[in-house]
Design goal:
Blueprint: E1 2-3, H1 16-25, H2 31-52, E2 58-59, H3 67-74, H4 91-99, E3 109-111, E4 118-120, E5 123-124, H5 136-146, E6 152-156, H6 158-164, E7 166-167, H7 181-198, E8 202-206, H8 216-228, H9 230-233, E9 237-241, H10 249-256, E10 263-267, H11 272-279, E11 287-293, H12 303-317, E12 322-326, H13 345-349, H14 354-368, H15 374-389, H16 396-403, H17 416-427, H18 444-454, H19 460-481, H20 498-501, E13 505-508, E14 515-518, E15 521-523, E16 527-533, H21 540-547, E17 555-559, H22 561-566, H23 576-596, E18 601-605, H24 617-635, E19 643-648, H25 657-662, E20 667-670, H26 678-684, E21 692-695, H27 708-719, H28 740-760
Parallel strand pairs: 1-12, 2-6, 5-7, 6-8, 8-9, 9-10, 10-11, 11-12, 17-18, 18-19, 19-20, 20-21
Antiparallel strand pairs: 3-4, 13-16, 14-15
Helix pairs in contact: 1-2, 5-7, 8-10, 12-14, 16-23, 18-19, 23-24, 27-28
Bound molecules: glutamine and zinc ion.
Glutamine binds next to loops.
C-alpha cells in the first residue's frame, strides 16, 4: 500500500527561505547564498519524506516565489515590459515579474482559489510566444535523484494555468485564453520529454480548476489538452490532482474518461461528495490517490475514521491501486509542530502540522497493508478522545447561546435612513465626512514597546503611557489635518485578529505556525480550538482614552466575527457557522460595552468576508447567509444613534453587493482604487444603496502620494453614481504599513480635495 504527498511548504520550519529571499533582495547576500538555503531546504524535505516511508514524493513544489509564476517562467510567457530577450530565465527577470523593479511594476497577484495563498496572474494574449525558458522542473527532479530520491515531478496543469490567467493590457477582454492551449502544450511536451529523459516514471499535473463550476468549453479543454499530450506522456504514469472541493459529476466524468491518465487525486476532506462519485464507478485498472489527510488545517487526523474510508475505497479500486494522500498541498498548513515551544502538551497532542501529516499518511498506508502501528493508532485515538471531552473545548453556556441564534434573523429595529438621521443629529458631520480605516503607521519604536511589554521587560505602567502617547500624537495629527471622524491608530495591536484572539477564550497561538501568503510573506493564524467567549472588555480602555482626547467622534475599532474566523485555523469538530456565531456573541458584548462607555461610532471590520466565499456557486448563498447574519448579531443591540461602520478589503464585490447591503451597517468603507473603480459600476447599473459608503479614494498599498486633483476627480466620479449625502471620503485601507512622510501629505491632499468639492456642491 502506497503513500503520496501532494506538495510541501517551502518556507522552512523557521521561515529560512523568507529570510534568505529578503536578504538577497536587499543586496545583503548573493544569489549563491539564496540557492544554498533553497537546496538545503529541498534536501531536508525529501529526506524527511523518505525517512517517513512515503512512496510518491513530490518535486518541483518548491518555489522562490510562486508555482504559477514558475509555470510562466517555464513557458517563457514573460510580459514584454520586463525586457526579457530569451534564454533561461534567471532571478532578475523572475523577481521583476514577482515584485516589480525600479522602472516596471510587478504583475498582478490574486488569491489561489479559496486559500490565503496568492499567485502571480499570467498576462497573455494572441501575440505571446511560448518557449521552454525555465528548466526548474527537470533540475529539481535531477537534484533529488542525485540525493537518491526518485520523485514525482509536479507541474501546474495547462488548463488550470490558462483559466487562471488574464488578457494582457491592450488585449481584448473577450480574448479566449484557452485558444492558447496548443501553443502552451507544445512547451509542456518538451518539459515532459526532458523529465522522461532524466528518468521520471511518474508525473503529476495539478488541475484544481476541476473543482470549480466549469462550463463545457473548459471541460472540453481538459479532454483536448490531455489527448494532445498523450503521445508525449506515453510510458509515464500520469497523476491528475484536484483539490479544495468536490469535483462535479461532469468533471468527474471528463476526468475519469481521460485515456492517458493513470491516477486521480481527490480531496476527500473538503470534497465529501466526491466519495459518492467514486462509489458510483471508478475506472478499472487506474489508481486512486485518496486525499484523507487535511492539507489546510492543523488538526491531527482521525486515523480510525480515515482508515474506515480507505477500507471502503479499497473494495472499489482494488488493494494495489489505492494510494493514501493529503487532501491538497501541505503548503496551506503550518510546517512542523516540533518547534512549538509555547503550546501545552494537551493542545499539542490534538495537532499535526506538515511534518506530522507525512507520518500520518504513511501510518495509514501501512495499516492498509496490514502493518498497523498499534501504538501510533492508539495514541491518536486517545488524543481524539481527549479533544472531544476536554473542558477546555466545551463551554455549555456558549454552546446554548450560539444554538439559540439559529433560525432567527437579528436586525436593528429601525431602517438605515431613520438611523442615519438620528446619528446625524448627534454627530453633526459636514457633507462628505472624512475618516480613515483605523491603523496609523507602526513605527519601529512602537513595535519595540509592544515586544518589550510582552517579554515583561517594561512595566504595564510604562507600556500604557507609551501607547497613550502614541494615541495622543495620532489624535493631534488628525485634528490638524481636520479629519471629521477620528481613529486611535491601533498602536496596541500587532494584528487585527491576533489582538482579539489573545483576549478571547478558545484560542491558542503558535510560535512558528507560519503559512505562506505570497512571496516571502507569511501569516501565523491563531488556532480556534474551543468554544469562544469574552472574559472581559477588550478595547474599551483604549477607545475611551482616545475619545477623552478629542471632541470629535472617535471610532471604536473591532474585528468582525467572519474575519476572525477566516484568518484563523478553525475547528473541524463543528460547522464554521457555529464558531462564527460564538465569536459574534463575544463581539456583540464588546460593541455594547463600547456604547456604554460613550463611543458613538463603532467600526466592525469584515476585511475578509469575501475571502471565505466557497468556490462552488451552489454553496455561496448559505455561506453569505450565516456570515452576514453573524455580522448583524454583533450590533443588533445598539441604539439608533450609535453609528455602526464596517470595512472590507479586496476589490471584487460586485457579485456579493446584495449581501453587503444586507449587513445593514450604517456606513461601509470599502477598497475601490486598485480595481479601476469596478465597485462604482454596480451603482451605475442601478443597485440601490441607502447607507453611508466610503469607496477608498487612494491606494494605501503603494508609497505613492495621490495628488489633490486626482482625489477630487475620484470623488466626483463617485458623486456621479452615489447620492451626496451618503458619501464618505477615506483611503482604501488601514495605514499601518505606510510611513508618516507618506501618510501626512496623502491625508492632507485627501482633506483638501474633499473641501474643494464641498465648496462646489
Ligand atoms: N482597521 C484595520 C486597519 O486599519 C483594517 C485592516 C484591514 O482592513 N485589513 O488596519
Ligand atoms: Zn482593508
Amino acid at each position: 500500500m502506497a503513500s503520496h504527498i501532494v506538495g510541501y511548504p517551502r518556507m522552512g520550519p523557521k521561515r529560512e527561505l523568507k529570510f534568505a529571499l529578503e536578504s538577497f533582495w536587499d543586496g545583503k547576500s548573493s544569489a549563491e547564498d539564496l540557492q544554498k538555503v533553497a537546496s538545503d531546504l529541498r534536501a531536508s524535505i525529501w529526506k524527511q519524506m523518505t525517512d517517513a516511508g512515503i512512496k510518491y514524493i513530490p518535486s518541483n513544489t518548491f518555489s522562490y516565489y510562486d508555482q504559477v509564476l514558475d509555470t510562466t517562467a517555464m513557458l517563457g510567457a514573460v510580459p514584454a515590459r520586463y525586457g526579457w530577450t530569451g534564454g533561461e530565465i534567471g532571478f532578475d527577470t523572475f523577481f521583476s515579474m514577482a515584485r516589480g523593479n525600479a522602472s516596471v511594476p510587478a504583475m498582478e497577484m490574486t488569491k489561489w482559489f479559496d486559500t490565503n495563498y496568492h499567485f502571480i496572474v499570467p498576462e497573455l494574449g494572441p501575440d505571446m510566444t511560448f518557449t521552454y525558458a525555465s528548466h526548474k522542473a527537470v533540475n529539481e527532479y535531477k537534484e533529488a535523484k542525485a540525493l537518491g530520491v526518485d520523485t514525482v515531478p509536479v507541474l501546474v496543469g495547462p488548463v488550470t494555468y490558462l483559466v487562471l490567467s488574464k488578457p494582457a493590457k491592450g488585449v481584448d477582454k473577450s480574448f479566449c485564453l484557452l485558444s492558447l492551449l496548443p501553443k502552451v502544450l507544445a512547451v509542456y511536451k518538451e518539459v515532459v520529454a526532458d523529465l522522461k529523459a532524466a528518468g521520471a516514471t511518474w508525473i503529476q499535473f495539478d488541475e484544481p480548476i476541476l473543482v470549480t463550476d466549469l462550463d463545457s468549453q473548459k471541460l472540453q479543454a481538459i479532454s483536448a489538452a490531455y489527448a494532445e499530450l498523450e503521445s508525449a506522456l506515453s510510458g509515464l504514469n500520469v497523476l491528475i490532482e484536484t483539490y479544495f472541493a468536490d469535483v462535479t459529476a461532469e468533471a468527474y466524468q471528463t476526468l475519469t474518461s481521460l485515456n492517458v491518465v493513470t491516477a486521480f487525486g481527490f480531496d476527500l476532506v473538503r470534497g465529501t461528495k466526491t466519495l459518492d462519485l467514486i462509489k458510483g464507478g471508478f475506472p478499472s485498472g487506474k489508481y486512486l490517490f485518496a486525499g484523507v489527510v487535511d492539507g489546510r488545517n492543523i488538526w491531527a487526523n482521525n486515523l480510525a475514521t480515515s482508515l474506515d474510508t480507505l477500507n471502503s475505497l479499497e473494495g472499489i479500486v482494488g488493494k494495489d491501486k489505492l494510494v493514501v494522500s493529503t487532501s491538497c498541498s501541505l503548503l496551506h498548513t503550518a510546517v512542523d509542530l516540533v518547534n512549538e515551544t509555547k503550546l501545552d502538551n494537551e493542545i499539542k497532542s490534538w495537532l499535526a502540522f506538515a511534518a506530522q501529516k507525512i507520518v500520518e499518511v504513511n501510518a495509514l498506508a501501512k495499516a492498509l497493508a496490514g502493518q498497523k502501528d498499534e501504538a501510533f493508532f492508539s495514541s491518536n485515538a486517545a488524543a481524539q478522545a481527549s479533544r472531544k471531552s476536554s473542558p477546555r473545548v466545551t463551554n455549555e453556556a456558549v454552546q446554548k447561546a450560539a444554538a439559540a441564534l439559529k433560525g432567527s434573523d437579528h436586525r436593528r429595529a429601525t431602517n438605515v435612513s431613520t438611523r442615519l438621521d438620528a446619528q446625524q443629529k448627534k454627530l453633526n458631520l459636514p457633507i462628505l465626512p472624512t475618516t480613515t480605516i483605523g491603523s496609523f503607521p507602526q513605527t519601529v519604536e512602537l513595535r519595540k514597546v509592544r515586544r518589550e511589554y510582552k517579554a515583561t521587560k517594561i512595566s504595564e505602567e510604562e507600556y500604557v503611557s507609551a501607547i497613550k502617547e502614541e494615541i495622543r500624537k495620532v489624535v493631534e495629527l488628525q485634528e490638524q489635518l481636520d479629519i471629521d471622524v477620528l481613529v486611535h491608530g491601533e498602536p496596541e495591536r500587532n494584528d487585527m485578529v491576533e489582538y482579539f484572539g489573545e483576549q478571547l477564550s478558545g484560542f491558542a497561538f503558535t510560535v512558528n505556525g507560519w503559512v505562506q501568503s505570497y512571496g516571502s510573506r507569511c501569516v501565523k493564524p491563531p488556532i480556534i480550538y474551543g468554544d469562544v467567549s469574552r472574559p472581559k472588555a477588550m478595547t474599551v480602555f483604549w477607545s475611551s482614552t482616545a475619545q477623552s482626547m478629542t471632541k470629535r467622534p472617535m471610532k471604536g475599532m473591532l474585528t468582525g466575527p467572519v474575519t476572525i474566523l477566516n484568518w484563523s485555523f478553525v475547528r473541524n469538530d463543528q460547522p464554521r457557522s457555529e464558531t462564527t456565531y460564538q465569536i459574534a456573541l463575544a463581539i456583540k458584548d464588546e460593541v455594547e460595552d463600547l456604547e456604554k462607555a460613550g463611543i458613538t461610532v463603532i467600526q466592525i471590520d469584515e476585511a475578509a468576508l469575501r475571502e471565505g466565499l466557497p468556490l462552488r456557486k451552489s454553496e455561496q448563498a448559505n455561506y453569505l447567509d450565516w456570515a452576514v447574519h453573524s455580522f448583524r448579531i454583533t450590533n443588533v443591540g445598539v441604539q439608533d444613534t450609535t453609528q455602526i461602520h464596517t470595512h472590507m478589503c479586496y476589490s471584487n464585490f460586485n457579485d456579493i453587493i446584495h449581501s453587503i447591503i444586507d449587513m445593514d451597517a450604517d456606513v461601509i468603507t470599502i477598497e475601490n482604487s486598485r480595481s479601476d473603480e469596478k465597485l462604482l459600476s454596480v451603482f451605475r447599473e442601478g443597485v440601490k444603496y441607502g447607507a453611508g459608503i466610503g469607496p477608498g479614494v487612494y491606494d494605501i498599498h503603494s508609497p505613492r502620494i495621490p495628488p489633490t486633483e486626482e482625489i477630487a476627480d475620484r470623488i466626483n466620479k463617485m458623486l456621479a453614481v452615489l447620492e451626496r449625502n451618503i458619501l464618505w471620503v477615506n483611503p482604501d485601507c488601514g495605514l499601518k504599513t505606510r510611513k508618516y512622510p507618506e501618510v501626512n501629505p496623502a491625508l492632507t491632499n485627501m482633506v483638501a480635495a474633499t473641501k474643494l468639492i464641498r465648496n462646489q456642491l
